[in-house]
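Hello forum,

I keep getting stuck at the same step: I have a sequence, I want structure tokens, and every attempt I make locally crashes halfway through. Rather than fight my setup again tonight, could one of you with a working pipeline run this one for me? It's a single chain of 362 residues.
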Amino acid sequence: MLTKNITLEGRTILVTGAVGFIGANLSKRLLRDIAGVRVVGIDNMNDYYDVRLKEERLKDLSSHPSFSFVKGDIANKSTIDSLFAEYRPSVVVNLAAQAGVRYSIINPDAYVASNLTGFYNILEACRHSYDNGRTGVEHLVYASSSSVYGSNRKVPYSTDDKVDNPVSLYAATKKSNELMAHAYSKLYNIRSTGLRFFTVYGPAGRPDMAYFGFTEKLVTGEAIKIFNYGNCQRDFTYIDDIVEGIVRVMQHAPEQSNGEDGLPVPPYKVYNIGNNRPENLLDFVTILQEELVRAGVLPVGYDFEAHKEFVPMQPGDVPVTYADITPLEEDFGFKPATPLRVGLRKFAEWYKNMWVDCREPR
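Reply #2:
Ran it on my machine without issues. Output:
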């Protein structure tokens, strides 16, 4: 197992996408558990999904005196340059991105702006953080995605697999992030780690994800569309497991060294973070509906069969996601393990107790 070479205590950590689902949970964890930490968050608060979710997350984070928030877009270079100049972060966790496979077909411009231009701005700011002999950014951790594996048939997906055939623009931008980070690690010795997340879920998550979208439709009496006629498998990963993995990875940056040519060997790594246990979509739907009834979101005796519609696969989707997490387990002693029922129960309870009240007309 790798030893820690980054100290988080008393440091300034920049989290982009700080009021997004993962960003907010990560920020909360750092503020709660790391002594003397200062978390600087940036988010553009866009309306890709209900902004009230982001507002609630920001309200929670803003109660911490060690949290600073900048409303801005990482695609704006001057915003990023000013932020780095003012706060001089020691560790950067780039989670800001336009997410979603299907939306990338509808609005590709958003993906180019945030995922490509925005990530380029972060890399450039990290590069120049070393100017004039400064210590600079000690570790850049950034979000990639299981989508980079495209329609690979070999499972489980390994970070050693070739991922040269993306099936969506979203996947292409995430693979591009990995290539860009590698280039900057090689050219400027920036220590970077990419994390390929697998279907993240949990309370206060993204409404465009299946479990949240299904719930919203069932509550309003609409039919839920089950793609590929139910013949899909997903490696659902609970949010707390994702955050635990990020925090562990943050504390060990890839080592810097020179090769035989005297030039830097890129201090660069990529890991999968998944539950390592893909679930059949129909089993997932069954567990979700049981937990929604248990929590009182839906009434006992709800006719689920009347609210299911089996449809073909959508463009950009893949039939299975399945993470090989061996390197994560070997290097950091961590393996995500939250059972799907446990995670969906927590989501259903949050939905019943928090979200229904939060979205009442103001």
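The chain has one domain: 12-286+289-358. If your local run keeps crashing, start a new thread with the error log.
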